[in-house]
Design a protein that fits this description.
Strand order of the largest sheet: 1-2-3
Shape: rod-shaped
Order of helices and strands: EHHEEHH
Structural class: alpha+beta
């Protein structure tokens, strides 16, 4: 489907619903294709970061940790990292 910039201004909601239904909408500017309106497909781009809150709450070192030792201790407990 092709619509002009003027049409998209006047009928955006109806046109957006068509795009949401899966129809590609080409928006023209002065008669030439300028933009493409398509729905965004929700999909995670990467795995979420692991939750380290419980690990931090469980550890109670007898002496204060230096900046690097917490990470080293955590990695030793979690072989995956």
């Amino acid at each position: 489907m092709q619509v002009s910039v003027a049409d998209i201004k006047a009928r955006f909601t109806a046109i957006a619903r068509q795009a949401d239904a899966g129809q590609e909408v080409i928006i023209t500017n002065r008669g030439k294709p300028a933009y493409r309106l398509v729905p965004i497909i929700s999909a995670p781009l990467r795995a979420p970061f692991p939750d380290t809150t419980s690990l931090a709450m469980q550890s109670s070192p007898s002496e204060p940790l230096s900046h690097g030792s917490f990470v080293a201790d955590w990695r030793a407990q979690n072989e995956r990292f």
